[in-house]
Amino acid sequence: MRRRPGIGGLQKAAAARDQYRLLGENVAKLRTDMMKEQLATFKSQLEEFARKHKNDIRKNPAFRAQFHEMCAKVGVDPLASNKGFWAELLGIGDFYYELGVQIIEVCMLTRSLNGGLISLQELCSHLRQRRKKDREAVTEDDCLRAISKLKVLGSGFEVITIGKKKLVRSVPTELNKDHNQILELAQGQGFVTVEEVQRRLSWSSGRVIDALDTLLEEGLAMIDNGNKDGICQYWFPCVSSVYSFVGSDT
């Protein structure tokens, strides 16, 4: 028979476990301290990098995107405060604030055409027209960052992905799966017909008409009855290049 360990043996085992636990805690603390030190060093280097390349960050979109990636890796958000160190150093907070205001203006001016749903690509095109006199180019990445800050204000702005397109929604319209599928289908030529949706999605005519009627009521679709074959076409400005906002260069 195996002998059970005595009280002394149990105490030694408990002491050994305590030692291992303390050792583990010390190693973990040491690693944490080292990581904090490395992080502080990297942040300091990041600040120095920002001072040195201030103009490039503001003027060069690709450089600006890379700078944001560097910041994200160390938990720094240059847009967190318009009065913070980064805003004062780079003026980058002002850049995105102005861009956010322009995004709101474009969305409001195009709402009667697209129902408050505009492709990110088209939005950027309008913004570039508006900012032609500025040397600060605007990218889709810049628009996404500016819109993320608008969301914090509870402004109703949101970026949604349908098919291969990113769309910016500026009205509180709730799109269900049927609406999204029709919008994705329309990306090919900018419009759909009831018959096409029935054929491509294997839906009943009632389901198709119900979804299209909702999109019409929300202002997201327009009907074209002027075709020679008499078939109604439902056009979607948010995914079509046919409809462009002529006032974007004003």
TrEMBL record:
It comes from the Eukaryota. This is Vacuolar protein sorting-associated protein. The lineage of its organism: Eukaryota, Viridiplantae, Streptophyta, Embryophyta, Tracheophyta. GO terms for cellular component: ESCRT II complex. It holds the Pfam family EAP30. Keywords: Protein transport, Transport. The keyword Lipid metabolism does not apply. SUPFAM superfamilies: Winged helix' DNA-binding domain (SSF46785). Belongs to the SNF8 family. GO terms for biological process: protein transport to vacuole involved in ubiquitin-dependent protein catabolic process via the multivesicular body sorting pathway. PANTHER family: EAP30 SUBUNIT OF ELL COMPLEX, VACUOLAR-SORTING PROTEIN SNF8. Component of the endosomal sorting complex required for transport II (ESCRT-II). The keyword Nucleotide-binding does not apply. It comes from Raphanus sativus. Component of the endosomal sorting complex required for transport II (ESCRT-II), which is required for multivesicular body (MVB) formation and sorting of endosomal cargo proteins into MVBs.
